[in-house]
Amino acid sequence: MKTCTKCGVNEVIIEKKHSGQRLCKDCFIQGTQQKVLKDIRHYKLIDRGDKVMVALSGGKDSVMVLDILNSLYERNIIDMSTVTIDEGIKGYREDGVKIAKTHAKRLGIEHTVVNFKDSFDTTLDDIMASNSQRGACTYCGVFRRWILNREARKIGASKIATGHNLDDETQAILMNYLEGNIENLTRIGPKTISRSEMFTVKIKPLREIPEREVGLYVIARELEVHLAGCPYSSDSFRGEVGQFIKQLSRNHPTIMYSTLRGFDKLKPVIKQEFAREFNMGECISCGEPAAHEMCRACIFSNELGQNKKSL
Amino acid sequence: MKYTLIIGDVKESKDIKKGITINHILEEIDLPLETVVVKKNGKIVIEEEEISHGDVIEIIRVIYGG
Fold first, then answer.
1. Which residues lie across from B14 on neighbouring strands?
2. Which of B34, B35, B41, B43 should one mutate to test binding to chain A, selecting the residue with the greatest count of A CBs within 10 A?
3. pLDDT tens, residue by residue, A287-306
4. Which residues in chain B have their CB less than 8 angstroms from residue A2's CB?
5. SS3 state at A27
6. Distance (Å) from the C-alpha of residue A207 to the closest C-alpha of chain B?
7. In CATH terms, is domain B2-61 a member of 3.10.20.30?
8. How far apart are CA A141 and CA A93, in angstroms?
């Protein structure tokens, strides 16, 4: 009978392959919370008095971020607000929005829902049904970041917290390396620093938590989450890279950690050589920060508008 | 000798083979352990957990493509 490495009880809910540690429910929850708070301190993600806007999709990652940051909110270390983005994916996004609303209400935290429809006069379903040249994730990512930045300024947030986990970070590192996007690599990390005052710093408190442990955490804590996968994600390059990493991790359980550590050592050097200095101006169309005349959201929006006209 | 298997909305009654564990079930349905959390009779268990007559096994998928 396997017992908890920390407290000895015989109801183990996880055996961590990379360390051999076995944990019961309480020790796993407590240990995970402590790990995330330790990473927040180590990477200096949060300062006392910050107003943190949590990007809350209702999925397991963002619900876990909300749950752990709530302990800082309750102790008045930070102020907190939540935003849910509705990309307009029928049969998928509605459940996440509902769950996000429930959690925000339960914790008494400010919550806003922002639609793609209101911001860009289109939905992801419409984009994918049209003659669009780019993949779903490309539009979705750019549009979501545009909304998050704008919303963060609107509510006066000093930080935006997202639920990116260890699997996400490792995938991003590998994807960009494999595609030769060395400049993009300079932008991966636990905290973004931006050269424009119009950008709000983004933090990733779950950066060192494996995706499966995020899933285990929310179930162990009995938190309601939206577990379904995005219907547009199936054929993505990220999906392929993710599968590859998971397969490797079976026989090499520490591989994601070592990839992250190695990358963190390399990053300052890559940044020095490859980070491009942009003079951040304002988009001539929407006023948001842009490295060129127009921001990417407006460039994409224009492309899609032209697609609509040509139909 | 039977156990109940729940995956999403699907609930089935299955025969128990001697010494069957969560690992065996996951292999049979081709779901990698890294993508699921498994409960036996309402409690989270690890993959080596043995299954007995009357057990209710719930497999919760926590990782998808996107």
1. B3
2. B34
3. 998 888 999 999 999 888 86
4. 46, 48
5. helix
6. 16
7. yes
8. 15
